[in-house]
Specification:
By secondary structure, this protein is an alpha/beta fold. It contains 8 helices and 6 strands. Strands 1-6-5-2-3-4 form a 6-stranded parallel beta sheet, sandwiched between helices. The longest helix has 18 residues, at 50-67.
Amino acid sequence: MVSALPALPGRNIVLVDANIFVYGLLRESQQSAQLIERCRNEEVAGVTTTEVIGEVCHRLMLKEAMDSGLINRPAAASLKRKHDGIRGLRKYWELTARIFQWNLMVLGSHESRHHRAQRVRGEHGLLTNDSLLVAACLEHDIRSLATRDSDFDQIPGLTKYKPTDLM
């Protein structure tokens, strides 16, 4: 089932995907920023994973590198060998580090989740990071996922909450 992000009921446990953090931190989606605030205020129980935080950091680094003119397109290959430029980037980490200040449970990774994620990939054809997110939901009996990614729409038993205020 897919619902609008603002429809997420209070007192619910929700796993928050990387794109929600990116949209909220960059103020590209007011609904994503509001979900983050709801987590901070403990209106909903926000959960994420270390893999998600790594992905947020990566995306924000690429965005900052593009915005500063260091690269022309948001691709790691464009930034990979620009070590001096990377050392000069700061904003991406300031934004990413905010996640650790919010009332979120951050789930670490372990071998059993990777094995479960492989089964998820085999069953649903998801990419690695997406399958790890679904595996975390299964592992912790989390039935709500905040994401904009339509690849999760096919996963049964998981209600997807998506921002509707993005172009």
